[in-house]
Write a structure and sequence with these properties.
By secondary structure, the chain is an alpha+beta fold. The protein is built from 24 helices and 24 strands. It has a 5-stranded mixed beta sheet. β19 and β20 form a beta hairpin.
């Protein structure tokens, strides 16, 4: 039996206050006073009360952090006060020059400075009215950003209602970020679930904030630090940046505890330099220190030049670097036959990880940097993610005769000739049956054709044992064949064979991707399957007919012709045909010239909830639209899903409308 309305309202208010207090302790103070189970129980009680008494559901209730429906696009968020960028100081000399310039403009030394760690996240603004969060957006160009209020409501360290007595209108500026430990745990969960991991915490945080579905944002471990204000009415009774940070903290907003105030420049400079060596000691990424003149009156006196305030500067750190020895340059062979050089290093700790191998891309790259076996080299993690060799230390050679690098003339895996096409940076093994290529190709085929259980280890075992010489041999495997392989039991063998059998019914477009034809990915495969609806028609197509197909240029057409001209590939296709693998495009309605999407151009990015890239392309094409591979001013819509990348960024820069899968389906009806 539910409580009476007056008792329910009283209990709901009590629960909201408790949950917000516990949230504040956990996410802002980092000092929880109750166990997770107790918080969960109180949260469920509040959910039940609000379900039974909907009139008690208020916008700043903890239950409303994940309640918004997915959006089809972001609207604009206009900053009442411009959200300025910062000038950079690279090194102590540039920081001193800035300090001297400030003193000259003020005609006196600043009273004090405030130094705050420069969080590596996404800058946002939060607008509070009457103490309640009413809207929020990204920085954008400083004047107009993207309105992402439903997403920001899911970030638990952002208070939905401020503490104390804040101004009637308060726009708070700060950074959304992800802690390293939370990022690592999230990636482990994604990989265990068969989902791709994210590249780094900053990209993961920025992508999460800009999701069209707030429920996806809510599932990501985002946090927030406040460090500035925009519009404030009435003005805060503070006279310095240091007191402003204290005021923000008093309103329940998280403020980075490492911020410090300095009354002399030398101590400030030492702080900036010290943190370059201490940045691995904290659980979030920083790329420098933001230095601000403390007194607000002096900030106003200094003003701004262009988009940069004269009273603040970012002391930027270079990417973390370390010195080590390059032991050898080796090569591996990819599934397309590309011969890829990489450096084997004496293990070195850089950017929080131990690095022992680094890609060298291609022979020209190695020669341009003059990297040689035996060199002492400087290594860094580009973007704090991908390790790279910055440069060799030439002076450390000390007369040593280190040979200039040359790519092997023969494939290290099969001994076949290595060939570099004219005008291309990459060289290739010419043997399409090369075991190294086959191992990668087999794994690729299994991934594309959804053959669960056929991972890299099994692909390696099948190639090493000689049981599979091309992907066509997969369909002749027996249980006895699999049981001869290491660590393969009867149940696993049965499951793999069942999944191989099921893969015969995959779409023709997916098969084309699985074959590993150079330059033929999901989108091009879908286009080719529509233009040449069976394997024989595609195999017999002339260069001219291929090139007249939309988005299929000379390079792709030549690659397709070369693939079908090779005898081993034709033999492999015959095995697939005899096994009953689908090699025809299913009949489907032809594109409607008068369809609802006629004349419209779409670009797909990210992972959609229910549609594969192939299915989404088919849906658009059948409705008369076109699918392009890149965003331009001629693009009508960008269809964005989870983990959308640079195409979404480009769309927002150009003002192209962004929609989700649900909106796409509505457009096609």
């Amino acid at each position: 039996m539910s409580p009476k309305p007056d008792k329910a309202a009283e209990r709901a208010a009590e629960l909201r206050a408790l949950l917000e207090r516990y949230n504040y302790e956990y996410y802002v103070l980092d000092a929880p006073s109750v166990a997770d189970a107790q918080w969960d129980a109180l949260f469920r009680e509040l959910q039940t009360l609000e379900a039974e008494h909907p009139e008690l559901r208020v916008p700043d209730s903890p239950t409303q952090r994940v309640g918004a429906a997915p959006s089809s696009a972001f609207s604009k968020y206009r900053h009442a006060v411009p959200m300025l960028s910062l000038g950079n100081a690279f090194g102590e000399d540039e920081l001193r020059a800035w300090h001297q310039r400030v003193a000259r403009l003020l005609d006196r030394e600043p009273e004090a400075y405030v130094a705050e760690l420069k969080i590596d996240g996404l800058a946002i603004a939060l607008r509070y009215e009457g103490g309640a969060l009413v809207s929020g957006g990204t920085r954008g160009d400083g004047t107009v950003g993207e309105e992402i209020t439903p997403n920001l409501r899911t970030v638990r360290s952002i208070p939905l209602r401020l503490h104390g007595k804040p101004p009637k209108v308060l726009e708070v500026r700060g950074e959304v970020y992800m802690r390293r430990s939370d990022f690592d745990a999230m990636n482990e969960r994604r990989i265990a679930a068969g989902e791709p991991g994210f590249a780094n915490p900053r990209n993961a945080a920025a992508g999460a904030v800009r999701q069209l579905d707030p429920k996806i944002t809510a599932s990501r471990p985002l946090r927030f630090f406040a460090y500035a204000v925009g519009e404030v009415r009435p003005q805060l009774p503070v006279d310095s940046q240091w007191h402003l940070l204290e005021a923000l903290r008093s309103y329940g907003l998280p403020v980075n505890k490492e911020a410090q105030r300095f009354t002399d420049f030398e101590s400030l400079a030492a702080f900036c330099k010290d943190w370059e060596h201490k940045r691995d000691s904290i659980d979030f990424g920083i790329d420098g220190v933001v230095v601000k003149v403390d007194a607000l009156a002096q900030q106003r006196e200094l003003g701004s030049v262009g988009r940069d305030p004269r009273w603040a500067i970012a002391f930027k750190y270079p990417p973390e670097e370390a010195q080590t020895k390059l032991l050898s340059i080796q090569v591996n062979v990819g599934r397309t036959g590309s011969v890829n050089p990489f450096a084997v290093l004496e293990p070195v700790h850089v950017g929080g990880v131990t690095v022992s191998t680094v890609t060298l891309h291609n022979e020209d790259y190695v020669r341009q940097k003059d990297i040689r076996e035996g060199d002492d080299v400087i290594v860094r993690r580009a973007g704090e993610v991908i390790p790279e060799i910055v440069r060799p230390i030439i002076e450390a050679r000390k007369g040593k005769r280190l040979a200039q690098y040359r790519l092997p003339a023969r494939c290290p895996a099969c001994g076949s000739q290595v060939f570099r096409p004219e005008g291309e940076a990459m060289a290739y093994c010419t043997n399409s049956s090369c075991p190294a290529q086959l191992r990668e190709q087999l794994f690729h085929f299994a991934q594309v054709m959804d053959i669960e259980g056929l991972g890299y280890a099994l692909a390696d075992a099948l190639v090493t044992s000689g049981k599979v010489k091309d992907v066509g041999d997969l369909y002749a495997l027996t249980e006895a064949d699999l049981l001869e392989l290491p660590r393969m039991g009867e149940k696993s063998a049965t499951n793999v064979l069942r999944n191989i059998e099921a893969s015969k019914q995959r779409s023709f477009a997916r098969l084309l991707v699985g074959l590993g034809i150079r330059f033929v990915g999901g989108q091009n495969a879908q286009i080719l399957a529509g233009a040449f609806p069976d394997i024989d028609e595609l195999a017999g197509a002339s260069l001219e007919s291929l090139q007249t197909t939309e988005q299929i240029g000379p390079k792709i057409a030549t690659s397709i012709k070369r693939f079908f001209e090779q005898a081993p590939n034709r033999a492999m296709l015959e095995k697939l045909r005899r096994a009953g693998v689908n090699m025809k495009e299913a009949a489907r309605p032809k594109p409607r010239k008068d369809g609802p999407l006629a004349g419209k151009t779409f670009v797909l990015t990210g992972t959609l909830p229910n549609l594969s890239r192939e299915d989404a392309t088919a849906l658009i094409v059948e409705a008369g639209g076109k699918v392009a591979s890149s965003v331009s001013k001629k693009t009508d819509y960008v269809v964005a899903g989870d983990a959308a990348g640079s195409k979404l960024t480009k769309a927002n820069e150009l003002g192209v409308k962004v929609i989700d899968e649900a909106a796409l389906r509505k457009l096609t009806t």
